[in-house]
Amino acid sequence: MTLTKGRMRPLLLSVSFLALAAGIPGLALTAAAGPTPAGALSLAPLADGPSLVEPVAARQGSKTKQGKASGAELLRKTQTSLSVVATTTKRLSRADRSKAAPFVQAIATTDRQMKALKAAIASKDKKALAKAVSATSRVVGKLNATFEMSKIQDRKVHEGMRSFNAAWTQTLKRLGGAKALVTAESTRANARRINAVRTRIEGRRAQTQRREDLEQLALILALLDEALLLNRSADYQWMALARLDQAFGYYGGYYDYYAVYDPTYVVQFQDDYYYWNNVSNLCEVQYETYYEAYSFESYEIVESYEYTESVEISQEIVTEEVMVEAEQTIDTVESEAVATGEETDGYAEAAAAESQVEAASEAEAQAEPIADPAEVADEEVDAVAEQPVSDDEAEAIADESAVDDAVDEPDAGAEEPAIDDGQQGEPEPEAQPEEPAAEPEAQPEEPAAEPEPQPEEEVAPEPEPEPEATEPEPEPQAAEPEPEPQPEAYEPESEPEAAEPPPPEPEPEASEPEPEPEPEPAQDDGGGDGG
Known about the structure:
Number of helices: 24
Number of strands: 2
Strand order of the largest sheet: 1-2
Strand content: under 5%
Helix content: 55-70%
Order of helices and strands: HHEHHHHHHHHHEHHHHHHHHHHHHH
């Protein structure tokens, strides 16, 4: 898994910024050399990674859209998107699901929790609603973590996940707890519990050298920082606990993945997992206070809402055939996912790992319950928690999907660049085929040039006797005395032939004045030859 190159979800307003705004002097901005002391806020940027700080205006400037829907309609859209995820995942090959067993397991678990949430709303049971919101927030985090770890590159699955997160964000806002019971005491208690978990995660970050771990922990820390900010808003304090649960879900998703594909490494997650589960149990009572005055009628009212991502499925990515199947199986997503899991390597191990860790963590909580961090005084954390936060800042976080941006990055790049981003080795093979493709073009040119030297080689053997004549030929032509001795050797043969034609002697006109001097040397020569 990689969360580099902007894949880590940007943070609106980190705790470091909050602490500086509060004027707390004792907080350093450099990476901790070791585990963070208990109760201290670590403001260290991620080693070798992106900073967790982003101006609020950056997200406030995001383009928002408006829609109208009841809470029930939004929940239905969330379930439809989850059904699209289940349907498209089922259509993948076994090879494409080679790392997706925990993800398929999370699809089934998420559907089960969605139904429990829907049942709590229908029964108008406020305690059941509080428990369902907490459990669903946790499985949503696990769904996203295991999806990211699965490295699935199918655009339809990515689109289903993107729409699911956008729809769940709006649904969760409709299920918001009341602010009537928000007090200074509840604000401090939440901040101390969230920071206690954050401290342990910072300790893990300081001790690990694995790039993958650093990226995973950075995302979890970002979610915890958002929880600390939401806790300072009376309107969204209830969502601070939901964000804490979602971060816990992310951590549980990583645990499930390593339990299946790297069992020797999963031990690294166990202690923190047990501790986190204890804290989550302590938050359940606080959850209930926010829903004591919840109005189920407001959930059914059709209201306007704003969002930065469309909750609708893109018809350009997901075909009508898939949408029809998803609508038909919306009530059987869990069973569909289980059927897919039976054809996915590692699914049985994933289901066993999830059951085992939940049972073990509950047993651990009962055997050795931790001291409630809310009862441990922490002046720095309390000082940050008391700082007011603007409605715009809290709304900007609450309206944004609390999910890693990696979910929708591969959507646009699943065709070409996303695979390059997700797998850094692929651009090389893409460049290699281009090179051989260019070489054959150059090769036909070379053979065309080779036949030309071949005729030159054929001509070359002929000029071999000519090298004496090629350049020296003009010279020997000027120096004809050398060929003259050769005709002298042939003259005796030509003389008998010349003796036969005495008549041609009168034909040459030059024979009258000149033949006499010519025959004289000829006769002299002939006489010498005859003598």
